[in-house]
Amino acid sequence: MRTGTRRTKALTAALTTLALASGALGYTHFFTRGIDRLPGRPCGGAVDRALVASALPSARTAEERGKLEQGLHGFTFQCYVHTSGDSSLVGDAQTGKGSDPNAWYAHYLSKRRDDTPIEVSSGDIRALSLSPDLATVYVPCTPPRSRLPAENLIVEATTIGPTRAKGDELRQVVADFAYQLLRHAYEAGGCKEARDFPDALPRLTEGRVVEEPIG
């Protein structure tokens, strides 16, 4: 009995150490039954699993990770879901300088491909869908450690590899993924401004087709 007790305590200590080590790096989970076995909200609660599943094909295994990093004047939050079929849905949130969205707008419109960008907004939250597999969302944000008067939080989201959704359906999924990540990063990073986020941004079918480089 004593030997069994010692083994149990040793195993518990080892698992605790592993959990703490994983927590220090963010939160990563590996599953052997694909996307349907991921947490209900992957990346530490950032996004909806059903949304991810609508974008990526079924696969034998899936992996997800969310990671927050705080700096002296800002923060980043990264989220990805990757499958054994080499398909990924990836989002990066990062704070930057300035509260005028025109610089963000011009930067991302310069990345435009053959697709026509679509813009939607809710108040000062703005989103651009640049193609079915690329979207970005912008919101003013002052990070908790920043002394600068005005900054922003920008999310870029994209898919890599084969996808389940295609065309306009994929375009909407990637835009929704970017917005969900923005909401989570805003709170997780501790932006100073109190803000009520809508549950979702307007649908892209209601958006403005961007014809000019600056709007």
Q: Could you walk me through the main structural features you see in this protein, from its secondary elements to its overall organization?
A:
The chain has helices spanning 2-25, 42-45, 49-55, 102-109, 167-189; strands at 27-31, 62-70, 75-83, 88-97, 118-122, 125-131, 134-140, 151-160, 208-209. It is α+β, with helices and mostly antiparallel strands. Strands 1-2-3-4-8-7-6-5-9 form a nine-stranded antiparallel β-sheet, sandwiched between helices. The longest helix is centred in the first third of the chain and has 24 residues, at 2-25. The N and C termini lie far apart (74 Å).
How many angstroms separate the termini? 74 Å
Q: Compute the CA-based radius of gyration.
A: 19 Å
How would you spell out the order of helices and strands? HEHHEEEHEEEEHE
| Largest β-sheet summary | 9 strands, antiparallel
Poorly predicted ranges (pLDDT <50, ≥5 residues)?
A: 1-25
- The residue fraction in helices comes out at 25-40%
Which strand order spans the largest sheet, edge to edge or round the barrel?
A: 1-2-3-4-8-7-6-5-9
E-strand count: 9
Indicate the overall shape.
globular
Q: From the helix content, strand content and strand pairing, which structural class follows?
A: alpha+beta
Mean pLDDT: 84
Count of alpha/pi helices? 5
Strand percent estimate? 25-35%
